[in-house]
Amino acid sequence: MIDWNEFEFETQAVRAGQHRTAEGEHSEALFLTSSFVFENAAQAAARFGHREEGNIYSRFTNPTVNTFEERLAILEGGERAIAAASGMAAILNTCLGLLRAGDHIVASQSVFGTTVILFKNILSKFGVETTFVPLVDYTAWEQAVKPNTKLLFLETPSNPLTEIADIARLATLAHQNQAYLVVDNCLCTPALQRPLSLGADIVVHSATKYLDGQGRCLGGAVVGKHALLEDIYAVLRSSGATLSAFNAWVFLKGMETLSLRMRAHSENALAMAQWLSAQPQITQVYYPGLESHPQHALAKTQQSGFGGLLSFEVAGGQNAAWQLIDSTRLISITGNLGDTKSTITHPATTTHGRLTPEERAGANISDGLIRLSVGLENVGDLQADLARGLKNL
Length: 393
Ligand SMILES: *Cc1c(COP(=O)(O)O)cnc(C)c1O
Known about the structure:
5-stranded mixed sheet; 7-stranded mixed sheet; Aspartate Aminotransferase, domain 2; 2 domains; alpha/beta; about 15% strand; about 40% helix; binds pyridoxal-5'-phosphate; Aspartate Aminotransferase, domain 1
């Protein structure tokens, strides 16, 4: 059997995890089946009794899902990956697997909105409390840690302001306090950043974003060491939030172009960030690839590319922001990101609309802020799409 660790990332992304059947299929086989058949009653008993390896039911294992898991584990440099039905299912099941009532989470306040809801409104019902801290305020992280803190949770770069946190530093803080560091690596993907190599214990993904990369399917994953993932898998197979074989197959196709796409997203986003910085109607551009970005140096050492997401502020608040968004003909007005198609969003009234005005101000989400997920279209066409609206501001 091939040891995929001997190969480079691009090769792993195209090939790792495939186990051909006797049919000799070139593309990965799609096992669209809910259950598996046994040769006889004794084999069924052996499988159910864990005395024999093999598939029983697709909520437990499915060969196409396994291929996705193996490939992602190799790409992230983890011992194992577990696929989940969505990014949120990956995060919830990680928490259910690792935490119990009375435990405490310290989380960046700049995590995905639904993650905030999950921690604040849902886990709290089961006796797990969360303290939210500003992503790059390390003193706040240190002060928030308590004797019962079990998880530190962050996303870097943050969405939409692209702040960059020092993963190695927060891993050290977690381990000094017998806690685990969980990093949501959705924005960079392993093509640009490998948190486990920087000391993180667990990586979670929304595969819905760049791993698919073409806006087709929901999915997620948890990656890390066998010992931690065993508890998470035990919850997942009972909670039932497992990934469908079809979606796993779509993600496998997406991952084959991951390196190429992330490089192209990064190039296009940098070109857009530089162009936006030169527009008089725009007062601020947030992109880690700009030398003016406060954590540009850290981004250069921690990431191998700056990614496809940026945000910017227009003078004139919400009216100007909406006017610019509504003037686009090409860029899609949608809340999603990580697609070959560029998307544009007004965070204050959509992704961050549930926050109070004070919370939004604290998180630096101004009314003039616009998020752009830069796709793979021609950069000149994207600039022209925004230039038309900018002219009228
Ligand atoms: C979208 C997203 C999620 C949630 O993923 P779903 O697949 O929508 O459940 C989690 N984290 C980040 C950073 C995301 O962008």
